[in-house]
Amino acid sequence: MRRVLGILAALILSAFAGAAHAGVDVRVDIVAQRMSVTTTDGEVYDWKISSGRKGFRSPNGVYRPTRLEKNWYSRKYGGAMPHSVFFRGGYAIHGTTAVGALGRPASHGCIRLHPANAAKLFALVKKHGSGQTKIALHGAAPDNLSRFAKASSPSKAKLAKAQSSKQTIAKAKQRHQATSVAQQRRGGDWETARGQILLRPTLPAGAYGYQPYYPRGYGWR
Fold it and tell me: What is the tens place of the pLDDT at every residue in 29-55?
């Protein structure tokens, strides 16, 4: 029994020791578009970020770094990703040249940092180790919609424009149909009138005027 208790105590002490040497704690606030970084060495940082823009939500959750890439290029989106700290599949924290966009959603789901800050975080993770680094993402930008959970819906303006276009097309079709019907009616009236003229009885035999004389044609009498 004492032996079992001793093992349990050792495990608890090792767990506390591991927690005391957590290394790097990275917290990403998507709503505020900020990242806070603290280390067991007493280093504290607070940086602007760019998370996923509309249609490309950054995945919330708690992660460990899966791999480090000092120089990486996204073939999918065609952009450089210096000092990448990957934490879930193709999602990473990395540097960006679009520093003017920091502070608002602008990425395809990754967490962008100023190149200098990305290099600093990369060095901290490398120093303390991926196993001693925790990355937590929480919140969602107001204009953000999840690409992998829910398809983005069209805006009211787009819906109104589409409805207006449909109405315009419908009116054009109605006008075309009305014109076609009118033309058909006019054509029908002409044919009817023409038939009535041809079937109208001729003048009496003793009358004078323009009358048809078959088969020799027309002439005055």
Answer: 999 999 999 999 999 999 999 999 998
